[in-house]
Amino acid sequence: MMRRIIKEHSKSLGHVPVIGINPRSNKKLKEELKAEGQRADLINFERPENRRYNERSNVERVNGRLKDEFGGRMVRVRGCAKVMTHLMFGILALTANQLLRFVT
User: Fold this and answer.
1) Residue 104 CA to chain centroid, in angstroms?
2) How far, in Å, CA of 69 to CA of 73, rounded?
């Protein structure tokens, strides 16, 4: 119910909602999703929703690392400019870390 409301609100704003489908105990929906995936694989078709979902996963991973490893969780400054500076230093450190991973 809540997921549908969020999805409708997102569409009303002109956005494309990125919400994964979880069929839970709905066997008919599970079978339908499986058959649709098999048909897409047969013709080598990647759905735009799947690509967006994968991009979202990457973004969530970066946000998690920023919070957990680079000081994004505990911001101890006040004011928009100072908070933005704090977070951008975290992004800079995260970028440097990723570049070092590529090199080594």
Assistant:
1) 27
2) 9
Asked if 67 contacts 75 with a C-beta cutoff of 8 angstroms, the reply is no
| Token reading at 90 | 């975290």
**Both tokens of residue 27?**
């066997």
Full-model pTM: 0.59
Task: Please name the residue ranges forming H helices in the chain.
Answer: 2-12, 27-42, 48-69, 80-103
Main-chain dihedrals φ then ψ at residue 27, nearest 5 degrees: -65, -35
Which parts of the chain have pLDDT scores under 50?
A: none
CB 91, CB 66: distance < 8 Å = yes
- Percent of the chain residues past pLDDT 70, beyond the cut: 99
Q: Any idea which residue has 């690509």 for tokens?
A: 51
